[in-house]
Amino acid sequence: MSHVFECGENAALVGYVYDECDPRERQAIDKHVAGCVACAAELASLRSTRESLANWAPPEVGLGFQIVRSTRSLPETRETQPPEGGGSEARSWYARPVPVWTQAVAAALIFAAGATLGVVRGIAPTTEVPGAAPISVVDDAASISDLEALERRLRAEISRIPVATALVDEVAPAASEEQILGRVRTLIEESERRQQRELALRTAQVVRDFDSQRQADLAQIQSSFGQIEGLTGAEVREQRQMLDYLIRVSQQR
Amino acid sequence: MHWTDEDLVTRSRGGDLDSFNQLILRWERPIYALAYRVIGREEDARDVCQETFLRAFRALPGFKGQAKFSSWVYRIALNLCRDWMRRQRRAPTVQIPEGVDPEELATVAGPAESIEDLVSRRELGTIVAEAMALLPEEQRTAIILKEYHGMTFQEIAELQGCPLSTVKTRVYQGLSVLRRHLETTGMAPQLVRRI
Question: Does residue B145 contact residue B151 with C-beta atoms inside 8 Å?
Answer without folding.
Answer: yes
